[in-house]
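Sequence only, no structure available. Ideas?
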Amino acid sequence: MSTDTLDAPVVETVKMNGLQAINAALMEAMEADPKVLVLGEDIADNEGGGVVGVTRGLSTKFGTMRVRSTPISEQAIIGAAIGAAMGGYKPVAEIMLMNFTTVAMDMIVNHAAKLRFMSGGQSQVPMVIRTLTGAGNQTAGQHADFYEAWFCHTAGIKVVIPWTPADFKGLYLSAIQDPDPVIIVESGKTLFVPMDVPVGQGPIPLGKANVVAPGSDITIVSYGQMMFTVMQAYEELTKAGVSVEVVDLRTISPWDKETVLASAGKTGRLLVVHEAGRNFGPGAEIAATVQEALFGKLKAPVGRLGAPYCSVPFAKKLEDAFLVQPPEIIAEAQRLVAMG
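Reply:
I predicted one. Tokens follow.
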């Protein structure tokens, strides 16, 4: 046994999936602070604890005054959360699916995100918006879109899309304590895959990316459930002799420019992969920023992979074609590496 092994810290972990991790974060935050409230459609235990059971057990423990099932009115949910936040509470509001945030866009964009600015800094809106989305489950075009670019384009609101259960717990704990509105996107598959979570997982800073795997030939940046696809491609590229550095962005706005620029500067090549549409997607902003900062230092143009300019299809074969698949990532990474 090496000295390194003897000196390595032993971290006790527990297996949990994303659902359990979010539930644990909410439970911990509500135990610690009576000002933390949860509201949304069908979130109380007598209604199942939410559409996928994230809030199960909370109303039984904390009561329906702090875990409030609401009418089916997304605008009212966000409006009530804004009012509670301005009144000194820390609401966590659930919008069942990301497509339904469109119903509450005025409340999110023109009120929650702007009240600090428009009040000259006198009003804070410390609220979290939870929402679920993601293709791959045949829920089609009104239930599976990634619209994070809309919110990233709006100053005043942070956008977070975790991948691992540990990140879900840590990022939720940070978001609930943030003085400004945070939208957390729970992307389909990430909620149901068990992974190791450190016992006592604490807050993870917003705006900080995670270097999941070190490498030297190319950097691949992604987030959310697309990280599962990226990691499949990573394994195949590694077998083929390509050294890939994988960066999980975790927070999309503000994104961690320092980590991405350091990684792309080291490898000389960057590929951004996301589930949102490629046109005007977050990859465009990241690519432009990196090419401005590293002009003349990159060995190849920045690559981007995202969904086609199309609504999410229902038919399984079309939906599979809509999503970026591992062979596309492998081919694009190999093309960029071969350029220089």
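The mean pLDDT is 95.
Hope that gets you unstuck.
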